[in-house]
């Protein structure tokens, strides 16, 4: 069967080979462990039970997790093994099961999550480059959607991620996510139970993307939509040779984006300090928690 899971529509036969994402028709996991550096309502005090899947349907030139996104590391696991990984994380007391870069596994995950009834919320943590048709397979199975919206304009989307149609796809995907789970709700402990959080990583020389994205969000989603404006950009890989993204974000650039978001009237915003752009926050992808 030719793969049409994501907007790439690469038509690969993932039964016998790999798709644009770099993986076939089996789960490949690089890390499964509590993570304490997500948004406060996701990590809380107990941590988020992150499951980092290998491969990615974007190839961002600045990717911090390139070993995983290029499918260069990870271990193939069966559905039964994946459910044991979920159970292990729950036993460690995490607030949720956080599926990181799950897009290219979505149809498989739909089948797995039909069988696995999680005692904690399931988080779908994605790049935003999604097919609405695929997301509909997950309706009723995902509690929290945590998408990025990376770009508004086609030019930077094409230049940095090879996806000129990025916003056209991501905007429709986010509206579908909102339809499924609604505005974020928190428990008495401040931990997210259900809903949508929209992320955006502010990139050097590209503050206009943040402004355009959140102007669109303000016009299409409720004012109490949760927003996470990330400041953790660090140039990696090819980005080191591609001005203006060959440097870190300046305080002024982040401040401009922050001020505009606040001016748009959003009621629930997460902002990061300058120390967020440190490599110590990048997980070690050494198969932790995978061998169960």
SSE string, helices as H and strands as E? EHEHEHEHEHEHHEEHEHE
Q: Any idea what the shape is?
A: globular
- The total count of helices amounts to 9
**Helical content class:** 25-40%
Radius of gyration: 18 Å
SS content category: alpha/beta
* Number of strand elements: 10
Strand content: 15-25%
**Might you state the CATH topology name?**
TIM Barrel
Largest beta-sheet characterization: 10 strands, mixed
* Weakly predicted, low-confidence segments: none
Distance, first to last CA: 31 Å
| Count of folded domains | 1
CATH architecture descriptor: Alpha-Beta Barrel
Corresponding CATH superfamily: Aldolase class I
Mean model confidence by pLDDT:
94
Query: What is the top-level CATH class?
Result: Alpha Beta
Give structural notes.
The chain is of the alpha/beta class and about 290 residues long. The chain contains nine helices and ten strands. Strands 1, 2, 3, 4, 5, 6, 7, 8, 9 and 10 form a ten-stranded mixed β-sheet that branches. The relative contact order is 0.15.
Helix and strand arrangement:
Blueprint: E1 27-35, H1 40-43, E2 48-53, H2 66-69, E3 75-77, H3 79-91, E4 97-100, H4 106-115, E5 122-126, H5 132-136, E6 144-147, H6 154-161, H7 166-181, E7 185-186, E8 192-201, H8 207-220, E9 226-230, H9 251-263, E10 268-271
Parallel strand pairs: 2-4, 4-5, 5-6, 6-8, 8-9, 9-10
Antiparallel strand pairs: 1-2, 1-3, 7-8
Helix pairs in contact: 8-9
